Amino acid sequence: MTSKKLVNSVAGCADDALAGLVACNPNLQLLQGHRVALRSDLDSLKGQVALLSGGGSGHEPAHAGFIGKGMLTGVIAGAVFTSPAVGSILAAIRAVAQAGTVGTLLIVKNYTGDRLNFGLAREQARAEGIPVEMVVIGDDSAFTVLKKAGRRGLCGTVLIHKVAGALAEAGVGLEEITDRVSEVAKAMGTLGLSLSSCSVPGSKPTFELSADEVELGLGIHGEAGVRRIKMATADEIVELMLDHMTSSSNMSHVPVQSGSSVVLMVNNLGGLSFLELGIIADAAVRSLEGRGVKIARALVGTFMSALEMPGISLTLLLVDEPLLKLIDAETTASAWPNVAKVLVTGRKRCRAAPAKPLEAPDSTAAGGAASKQMVLVLERVCATLLGLEGHLNALDRAAGDGDCGSTHSCAARAIQGWLKEGPPPASPAQLLSKLSLLLLEKMGGSSGALYGLFLTAAAQPLKAKTDLPAWSAAMDAGLEAMQKYGKAAPGDRTMLDSLWAAGQELQAWKSPGANLQILTKAVKSAEAAAEATRNMEAGAGRASYISSARLDQPDPGAVAAAAILRAILEVLQSQDA
């Protein structure tokens, strides 16, 4: 079965992709009749060396994404994973020559088709009197024994584009640029690894991997690598890759050792998530620095892909200060990252956490009667939530992820752990503030944020007084904060419905002669409101995206909130008995 691709046609996908890039970038132009993109300010390059590169499509943003001042003058694109036509390469050479450039350097990745086609175009151009040189880049560090064909050209080629572009922009001549980039290429290596293959439009995946395997040392055309290894952690995979790339027993290794200074490229082969890419980048930096290698610059992103291949390549380039200046030189190429011109190694990466504000001393002695009562309440709440975990998860599955019970259990276990550390503050305001911070840190999800908001706001009225009117005001403040930031309202089928119903009953605490019986009414109202959410249409939260016909159970957040209130009431009643 062929893979799904968002294309207009298999035959025209390379043309359409290049046309789209040019359409969105005023600095680029297409060369009529050819799959060639050139700088739109080509006529301003009189007296400079032109730089042309290219190859098969499917490696985006390479190669056209690296056209711009300070990098490539133009690129010639073939069909997907296919070398470009000789006629188009020759047309590009003629175009830049007729614009007044003083010579052309062809930067070619080491693949047979590219060498042949670019080489033939070069010979034809030279026969026409156009000065043209060609460098063939082979930076693959996969093969421990060098093959006759040489090392394959991989993502390191982009660094050659950058170095050559900086030299050309500085007015350096064709012969010197050719010699210098040829030397730079010798101090560079790249190794790829993939979790699975890719598929050319209209075709099946190029190879198959089992669920517990990854492919090491593969190229950028969907071809298999040098060996398959078992799936491992990101740290272990990066360590293995760097070992392979730098081992002196590997004939294609990069001679990196302790004290070396390098540019590191972490390249997405097309289908890896940015989350995974960041994890790989962190592992690579830690591993290299652990070996005593100094990372001068680190480039992380998608530079040379293999369609949708979920994998990465690591490139190491040995650098000194003159070479680093060329890497740092300005460029307008759209795909070149905005890299800070400072050393990566040796930089302070962590800022000290801000100091916490000083807390007012607890007005009631910890360990007193009030504090002990708080412990009993919290212990009952925790036990209740842990007992409801499965039920709440089952209710939550109707709206998607089914983790409401797990989230509340996580909060309960965090509170239990906190209570073991010592008695909680007896001051209600300090207690609610502490619980707020704990839930924000440990509970996670929107529930943690909502409880955190509620408790933070509820603590404020209790700083001055702790009588029943103050507790009613605390409930009002908490509900107001939840509505302000959570955007839910009563009747939206959320945890707010239970709390709101209880809050309305607790208004009676603001009247003279109020007592604990009001709390009993509040809890019953909260439970009734939780049950009533069964018939409500969700107006907020994840459930609002689900058809109301599927929501035939009460909202789990509302059920949890009512259960918490019930647990509080039961402890207080037992204390009064």
TrEMBL record:
Named cofactor requirement(s): Co(2+)
GO MF assignments: ATP binding; FAD-AMP lyase (cyclizing) activity; glycerone kinase activity; metal ion binding; triokinase activity
Cellular compartments per GO CC: cytosol
EC number(s) given by UniProt: 2.7.1.28, 2.7.1.29, 4.6.1.15
Every DhaK domain range: 9-336
Active site: 221
Transmembrane parts of this sequence: none
PROSITE patterns the record matches: DHAK, DHAL
UniProt xrefs under Gene3D superfamilies: 1.25.40.340, Dihydroxyacetone kinase, domain 1, Dihydroxyacetone kinase, domain 2
InterPro entries listed in its UniProt record: DhaK_ATP, DhaK_dom, DhaL_dom, DhaL_dom_sf, Dihydroxyacetone_Kinase
Signal peptide: none
Catalytic activity: dihydroxyacetone + ATP = dihydroxyacetone phosphate + ADP + H(+); D-glyceraldehyde + ATP = D-glyceraldehyde 3-phosphate + ADP + H(+); FAD = riboflavin cyclic-4',5'-phosphate + AMP + H(+)
GO BP annotations listed: glycerol catabolic process
Binding-site list for substrate: 56-59, 109, 114
Function: Catalyzes both the phosphorylation of dihydroxyacetone and of glyceraldehyde, and the splitting of ribonucleoside diphosphate-X compounds among which FAD is the best substrate. Represses IFIH1-mediated cellular antiviral response.
NCBIfam families xrefs: dak_ATP, PRK14479.1
Subunit structure: Homodimer. Interacts with IFIH1 (via the CARD domains), the interaction is inhibited by viral infection.
Protein name: Triokinase/FMN cyclase
Biological source species: Balaenoptera acutorostrata
Recorded name of the encoding gene: TKFC
